[in-house]
Amino acid sequence: MEKQVEVQDLTVWYGPRKVLEGISLYVNRGEILGIIGPSNSGKTTVLKCVNRTLELIPHARMEGCVLIGGDDVKAIGDVYALRRRVGMVFPLPVGLPMSIYDNVTFAPRMAGIHSRILLDEIVERSLRQAALWDEVKDRLDLLGTRLSGGQQQRLTIARALSHSPEILCLDEFSIAVDPVTTMRIEDVLVDLKKEITIILVTNLVQQARRLADRVAFINNGRLIEFDSTDVIFGEHPQEKMTFDYVRGHFG
Fold first, then answer.
1. Burial of 94 (0-12, 13-18, 19+ CB in 10 A)
2. C-alpha neighbours within 13 Å on the C-beta side of residue 207
3. How far apart are CA 20 and CA 122, in angstroms?
4. Residue 176: its pLDDT value, please?
5. Strands (DSSP E) along the chain, which ranges?
6. I need a surface site. Which of 44, 79, 134, 158 has the fewest CB within 10 A?
7. How far, in whole angstroms, is CA 133 from its chain's centroid?
8. Is residue 217 a part of any domain in this protein?
């Protein structure tokens, strides 16, 4: 299978503090990679390296390599083009203070798309992919911030999908939504992986077990184990720490 994202010997510092050390992992096209581990273990930092938002953090630096479709992200001259290839969904839903329609078309318009026909198509496609279309199709002029928390989270997913990314990164998307909405979004992700490679950071171990094809377990900035979901959650992962973590003995 084709490796869509490769992380090779990634080490990251925030000032003098080392937050990741020697991380190597990958995810194939059309798969979901689950990244699990205790809070503050460095999981989100991996995502920041994939779409180069690490550069927005003062005094942060990285060594190693992140490849997307074989391209070294550090060598991509247009960082905005990179971020169109890598959609990002943050933990708390942030509906922009504008209409649902304008929320979804914000990025395409910034990229130079102004045809109403094309924008209408993008809105419907993105909202359908995020399982939100049927709920909002008759009120696209409603402020995005007026939606419920679960709807706003799906709106942020639709916004991330509006520029047809190759990769979708989700950072703890279920923190701010109820269990029913969480399960609905999980169903969305299972459908999306037919078209988009997904990297999912989650503190919910069972969520990774349900969704991921491969799992990376990170603790204190180190990759403890990286393998198929069946191995990580089976009776015989390679590391005892993995066994203990996925069974809730710590974390």
1. middle
2. 24
3. 37
4. 64
5. 3-14, 17-28, 32-36, 60-68, 71-72, 86-89, 167-171, 197-201, 214-219, 222-228
6. 134
7. 21
8. yes
pTM over 0.90: yes
Tokens at residue 5, please? 């994202």
∠ CA 168-144-121 to the nearest 5 degrees? 60
Instruction: Report mean pLDDT in 10-residue bins for the chain, 251 residues.
Output: 95 97 97 96 96 95 96 93 91 81 94 95 96 96 91 92 95 80 89 94 95 97 98 94 93 75
Q: Do residues 31 and 213 make contact, with C-beta atoms less than 8 angstroms apart?
A: yes
* Residue located via tokens 């930092």: 45
- The CATH number given to whatever domain includes residue 29 is 3.40.50.300
- Angle, helices 179-192 vs 149-161, to 10°: value is 20
Q: What is the pLDDT of residue 92?
A: 73
Burial 60-75 (b: 16+ CB within 10 A, else e): bebebbbbbeeeebee
Q: Are 227 and 215 in contact (CB under 8 A)?
A: yes
Instruction: For residue 150, give its domain range.
Output: 3-246
Q: Please check whether residue 71 lies inside any domain of the structure.
A: yes
Maximum alpha-carbon separation in the chain:
56
Q: How many domains does the chain have?
A: 1
Task: Let me know if residue 251 belongs to a domain.
Answer: no
**Closest listed residue to residue 160, CA positions, set 86, 57, 58:** 86
